[in-house]
Amino acid sequence: MINLRSLEIFYWAVQLNSFSRAAEKLNTTQPTISQRIAGLEEQFGTQLVNRATKPFSLTDSGRALLAHAELILRQVAKLEHDLGLAGRVPRTVRLGVSETIVHTWLAQFLEESHRCFPNIDFDITVDVTPTMMSTLQAGEIDIALMLGPATVDKVACVHLVDYPLQFYAAPGFVQGDRLTIDELKRLPIITYPRNTYPFSLLREKLFRLTDQTPRIFTNSSLATIERMAADRIGVALVAKDAFSLSLVRGALVAMDSDLDMPSLSFCAFYVLGVNGEILEQLVEIARRVATTSRHAEVSG
C-alpha cells in the first residue's frame, strides 16, 4: 500500500527542489524526507532520485511517480474540500507581511480568516518584499502579502490594493502645507530600504530634478521612520494611512508635494500546487479585507 504522506513528501521535495525546504514546509526533518523517499524507492524497486547531482534530479521512474503523485494528492484535496474537511483540519499557514499592511488591515484579515477557518493558525513574519520573495520561493512561507506585481515561476500573484505614497512631517517643520522641489532638495527624506523600488524611484526622480544626490535616509521599520519624522530629522515618504495614529495625535501632518510618485501596489503571492485551495481562499479574504479597508479610509 502506498503511503499518502510519503507521496506528499516526495511531491514537495521535487517542487521545492530541496529536501531541507520540503522539511521546513511540511514541519518535519531532512532525515525524515530522505527516509521517506528511500522507502518509496525500496517499495517500487527502482531509483527515483539521482542524489549525485546538485541539486538532485529525477530519474525516469521519478518523473513518472511525480505525475501520478500530483494527480493522487489533488484528488485527495478535492475529496477533503467536497466533504468540508479542508477547513476543519488543524493547519499552520506561514504568512509573510509587509509592515505597511501590519499598520493598516492585518488585524482585520486575521480576524476574518479565523472566523472562516477556526482551525488555521498563522506563523507571521514581517519583512521587506525582496526578502519575502526569496523565502516564498524557498518554501519557507506559504503566502506573502507584499509589494508587486511580479511574474514568478510556479507562484500566483493576486492584486490586493493600491496605496498612494504620502509625505509626512512634524507640524511646523515645513513652511506651508506643500513640499516644493527646492525643499525636497534641501530636506532629508526618510523612506523604505534601499532594496525596495520606492527608494530607487525616489532617488532617480530627485536626481533628475535637482542634478544632485538626494539626502535619503532608509529604514525597514515604519515605526522608526515615523519617530524620525516626528523628531524633525526629516520628512517621511511612506504609504498613505500608514501613520494614521500620529495624524490623530498631531505628531505628524500629511504634506502635498510637487514630486509625482506612483502608488504602491500590494499583492498576495503563493506557491501553486497541491493543497493550494486553502491558500487561494485566504488570499481572497485578504483581497476583500484590503479593498474594504482602503474604501473606508478614503471615505473617512
Structural overview:
The protein is α/β, with parallel strands linked by helices. The chain folds into 3 domains: 4-82, Arc Repressor Mutant, subunit A (Orthogonal Bundle), CATH 1.10.10.10; 91-161 and 265-299, 3-Layer(aba) Sandwich (D-Maltodextrin-Binding Protein, domain 2), CATH 3.40.190.10; 165-262, 3-Layer(aba) Sandwich (D-Maltodextrin-Binding Protein, domain 2). 47% of the residues lie in helices and 21% in strands. It has 12 helices and 13 strands. It has helices spanning 4-15, 19-25, 30-44, 60-82, 99-102, 106-116, 129-137, 181-186, 197-210, 222-230, 244-249, 276-299; strands at residues 49-50, 57-58, 91-97, 120-126, 143-147, 155-163, 165-169, 178-179, 189-191, 216-218, 235-239, 253-257, 264-271. The strands form 3 sheets. A 6-stranded mixed β-sheet has the order 8-12-7-11-9-10, with helices on both faces. A 5-stranded mixed β-sheet has the order 4-3-5-13-6, sandwiched between helices. Strand 1 and strand 2 (57-58) form a beta hairpin. Helix 1 packs across helix 2 and helix 2 (19-25) packs across helix 3 (30-44). It is elongated, with a radius of gyration of 24 Å. Pfam families: HTH_1 (PF00126), LysR_substrate (PF03466). Residues 2-59 form the HTH lysR-type domain. Belongs to the LysR transcriptional regulatory family.
